[in-house]
Amino acid sequence: MTISITDREMLEKPQDSEVVLSVSGVSKKFCRDLKRSLFYGVRDIAGELVGLREKSETLRAKEFWALKDVSFELRRGEALGLVGKNGSGKSTLLRIIAGLIKPDTGSVKVKGRIAPLIALGAGFNPILTGRENVYANMSILGLSKKEINERFDEVIEFAEIGDAIDAPVQTYSSGMAARLGFASAIHTEPDILLIDEVLAVGDIKFQSKCHRKLSELRQQGTSFILVSHNSQIVLGVCDIAVYLCKGQQLQFGDIYSVIFQYERDLFPNNYEQELGTLSRPEKIPSESNGLDIIYLSFKDFQDRQIKSIVSGQAVDLCIGCKVHKPLSNIITRINFYETNSGSSPIQFLSNYNDKKKIDLPEGEHEIIIQMPYFCFKPGIYQIKIVVRNNALFTLDHVESFRFQVDSNGSMTSCEFYQPHSWKILSY
Amino acid sequence: MGRLKKLQQAVTTERNATWVVYTPESQLRHPVRLLRTMWRDLLASRELAWRLLVRDISAKYRQSFLGIIWAFIPPIVTAAGFTLAKSGGVVNVGNTDLPYPAYVMFSMALWQTFVEALNGPVQGVAEAKAMLARINFPREAIILAKLGEIFFNFGIKLILILGLFIWFKMPVTWSIILAPVALIHLVMLGTFLGLLLAPVGGLYKDFSMGITLATGLWLFLTPVVFPVPSGEGVFGTIVKFNPVTPLLVTTRELATTGVISDPVGFWIVSGIALGGLIFAWIVYRLAMPFVIERISS
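Predict the joint structure of the above. Result:
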């Protein structure tokens, strides 16, 4: 299925920035049988050498479409997320865009320099020092010696390597090597940056630094293509997205609608969801682990169900669940995420941490988390809920439950709501 | 201020940026564009090739105890072996115009350089696989770096050769100045063959194994441990039509006696080597995307 003409017209709303990458009708064939694949390789080379090769629409024996008819455009300063399950053709598409392999049909047009962030430490030689490796790695990425000299200090500082820069890379910890690779790749300052599942490098501090650097680059006009199967990261960075499934382009457009469809396909029994409420059909006994979450909702202090929360008000988060056999020591873990930034949660609640023991007999129950002041600032948030038994066995989980927080009228310059009151003492 | 300047630079590069298009059709359909990008990539890959060369050489010697001595050992061992065998009457080779140990050592150094040139591209592609599969850099850089390594190694062998000339008090003529030209032609021939095999060698392991086997046999069809045979027999004919013979022999003759025995053969093979090198370069460029597609996914 490709996007229809009307969809496309909707997408190409007038924008002042120019197109830097245009992918149209790109397909690619692959073969899983190694011997045959090598033989096809030789045949393709022969076809290329006699100049006969052109687009090929038919599959040979044991071949399949790794990509089929993918089209999209990327503008200056835009960030595009490429989502899909493993093996859906995301990395293949990136490699075609990078010019590493040729498409079988269609064409890719690129303006400006493309740099891959897929190549963390490619060409790192363990014997050589970090310094020598940075020079080699950055020249592979296309920089001249002068350009590397200019950026060298910045790279070292970013990677937080310090004096270890003159020690052989084989003495580095894996995190240090990855940081150094990331730092040298990100400092090549390309027009289009291809990022393949690498934002999970290093500790949380380094990750947030990477996110900051990426947004800085974007403000300078760098465009991104970010590949991930983690929708959290994609939501945090991108404005538009392409959804691939088995090589087919299922959707191209606004990030929220694409991610929504992706998650619905990924966790089919999770939704129908609208903002602020979620209800799930009952599981069949063979899929159940003894406890099923059947609904999630918010209630205000008068016990009325609400669709959105107002900053600073009291709210109860209600987890409706059906228990099939008596359970003791249930652990409920709730992660809150902000949809527009990073991948780390901004709040984490667990009855285990709060030393609240939960035992549930058979039947339907509602677990209520009472929050007398909801302190988040206005915006869209997500919750991930995992219910476990004995810390290791997952009874049920909700991957993503989205809700909205509205302003109470005085939250324009605040990061969070501070419960407070005024008082005057006169003497 | 610095940021403003950077921004202005960015704007100028933006104006200069042109569209790069990737399509399925063969690049041979646009020969002018192909040649232009080949030339551009060759120029662009010089600096990278230098980096790779420095990286490879320093990594190689940092992990070795004997270091550059490894460049001397093979010719010395071969020469010692054959000198012993010859003096013991085990092998019967004709008389050489140079002292026999010097003859073998010098020829062996030249032969080794040829074999390195032949192996260079296949090895280079194999070593750079991970990089090739991930980054689109000028593919010429790998080959240039390997060529640099060959000349670096020859430079070390030159110390040995210099020692030979002094030790055996060999006469030197002015023609020695021309010897590097012939050596370059020898390297060109090796690179031509190696470059032609590099893409398929990236796909099938058979080729690197085959090259090792072939060069072992080839050594004995080339006047390295024996003088150029004068006979018209089968062996003599094979040696005569062996393309390495005129190049290697001419290099040796220019460096020592100054009398070139087969100038016609030298120029014919040199022509083939140069034309072949350009042909192999085109093949290499066109074939690499398909190799990369198959070696990694």
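Strands of chain B lie at 19-22.
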